[in-house]
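Researcher: Sequence recovery benchmark, item below. Answer with residues only.
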């Protein structure tokens, strides 16, 4: 075992002790591997995850999680070091943990922020989204849409008639505006971003997954009417009800499938 891995292993014992003291067996471990950056080098979005108290905070906030979660965090990892980080994550997955692997902090460049603002006119220009426990579970949902083992998350949704909804077309049949896509994705999603109207459909899926992992509840009301624009058409209501049924069918299955997997939560 390398020195950096040994340091991480020692850190996880401390994290496990804190988690158990607080009565949480859901965040099973929080392991740091590599040289951690100095506070002055860490972007605000990453500061929480690199805090000395991060394992305590995450253990407390994830104590209701419905998965045996294990966070593996890299600090100062060079490209050649990542295989060792991945091997450690796989070792933990082989023990039955759901491993959330973060090889580097989620730094957000000025260019990526500019692109996000252009794509989402409702997003506050000066707001940074820190790496909160909810945020990493949202990112887990993002990545699960691309993994073979979790492909059922999207397979059943392909039959939904999206071409008849304002998720892709506006009420008059023209290409949907970004505002219309946000309205369809956010309405009825009872999360902070959903209530603020900041979610397109794929982002809504990830928000609903994060809340489901934490609470066991799929907090989506397909009957809620839009805050802006006309009421849902019959086709849109049908699509929204199909979404609701799909999430209730697939989320419990995915909860079991996620055990023993490494989810590499890459930078957004």
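Model:
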């Amino acid at each position: 075992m390398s020195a950096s891995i040994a340091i991480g292993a020692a850190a996880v014992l401390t994290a496990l002790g804190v988690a158990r003291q607080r009565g949480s067996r859901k965040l099973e471990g929080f392991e740091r591997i590599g040289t951690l950056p100095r506070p002055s080098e860490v972007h605000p979005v990453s500061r929480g995850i690199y805090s000395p108290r991060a394992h305590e905070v995450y253990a407390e906030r994830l104590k209701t999680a419905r998965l045996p979660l294990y966070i593996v965090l890299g600090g100062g990892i060079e490209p050649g070091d990542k295989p060792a980080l991945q091997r450690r994550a796989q070792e933990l997955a082989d023990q039955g943990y759901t491993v959330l692997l973060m090889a580097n902090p989620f730094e957000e460049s000025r260019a990526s922020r500019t692109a996000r603002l252009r794509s989402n006119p409702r997003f506050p220009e000066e707001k940074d989204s820190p790496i909160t426990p909810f945020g990493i579970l949202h990112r887990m949902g993002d990545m699960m849409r691309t993994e073979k083992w979790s492909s059922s998350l999207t397979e059943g949704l392909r039959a939904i008639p999206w071409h008849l909804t304002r998720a892709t077309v506006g009420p008059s049949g023209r290409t949907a505006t970004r505002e219309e896509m946000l309205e369809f994705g956010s309405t009825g999603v009872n999360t902070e971003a959903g209530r603020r109207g900041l979610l397109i459909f794929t982002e809504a899926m990830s928000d609903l997954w994060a809340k489901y992992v934490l609470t066991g509840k799929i907090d989506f009301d397909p009957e809620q009417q839009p805050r802006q624009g006309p009421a849902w058409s019959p086709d849109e209501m049908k699509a929204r009800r199909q979404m609701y049924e799909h999430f209730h069918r697939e989320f419990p299955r995915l909860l079991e499938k996620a055990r023993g997997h490494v989810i590499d939560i890459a930078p957004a």
